Amino acid sequence: MLTCSSVIRHFHDPVASITLDETARHRRRMRMVSDRLENGSTIAFLLDLPEARLLRHGDGLVLDDGRIIEVRAKPEALMEVRARDPRHLLTLAWQIGNRHLAAEITEQTIRLRRDHVIRDMLIGLGASVVDIDAPFDPEGGAYGGAHAGHHHDDGHAHSHGHSHD
């Protein structure tokens, strides 16, 4: 089986692409299959990286035969958060970070996975929240670039020292 043990950012002429949501793009070792090529075939390979990492939209997976497969971020059900001004956006980002949520941050918006509890909190803090379907490319974590967010369902059974109210 073909193996990919390196990822590059700048490349030309990929032979195929692979479209993955954010969760499937955070990997170290996994069997993967490219999207269908024009002739209907696919390329199966083993992703075997030295450490877990978030594969970003536009990354190139270098196969051991030298061919490159381009990573594409699959659109996901997200919330796009907007604030009144830059200071308000910082406050909203702090609240989101305090809940350990994976977030994609730009100068004007924050994107998160849809979550009605978090939506209500953000609206209560004065944010504008709109549902979108878009690729999700969250910030890396403070420890080695990986992120370790958790999702908030109607109730989760673990405790980590702060309230989610």
From TrEMBL:
<keyword id="KW-0963">Cytoplasm</keyword>
<dbReference type="InterPro" id="IPR012406">
    <property type="entry name" value="UreE"/>
</dbReference>
<dbReference type="InterPro" id="IPR004029">
    <property type="entry name" value="UreE_N"/>
</dbReference>
<keyword id="KW-0533">Nickel</keyword>
<comment type="similarity">
    <text>Belongs to the UreE family.</text>
</comment>
<feature type="domain" description="UreE urease accessory N-terminal">
    <location>
        <begin position="2"/>
        <end position="69"/>
    </location>
</feature>
<protein>
    <recommendedName>
        <fullName>Urease accessory protein UreE</fullName>
    </recommendedName>
</protein>
<feature type="compositionally biased region" description="Basic and acidic residues">
    <location>
        <begin position="151"/>
        <end position="165"/>
    </location>
</feature>
<dbReference type="InterPro" id="IPR007864">
    <property type="entry name" value="UreE_C_dom"/>
</dbReference>
<feature type="region of interest" description="Disordered">
    <location>
        <begin position="141"/>
        <end position="165"/>
    </location>
</feature>
<dbReference type="InterPro" id="IPR036118">
    <property type="entry name" value="UreE_N_sf"/>
</dbReference>
<comment type="function">
    <text>Involved in urease metallocenter assembly. Binds nickel. Probably functions as a nickel donor during metallocenter assembly.</text>
</comment>
<keyword id="KW-0143">Chaperone</keyword>
<dbReference type="Pfam" id="PF02814">
    <property type="entry name" value="UreE_N"/>
</dbReference>
<dbReference type="Pfam" id="PF05194">
    <property type="entry name" value="UreE_C"/>
</dbReference>
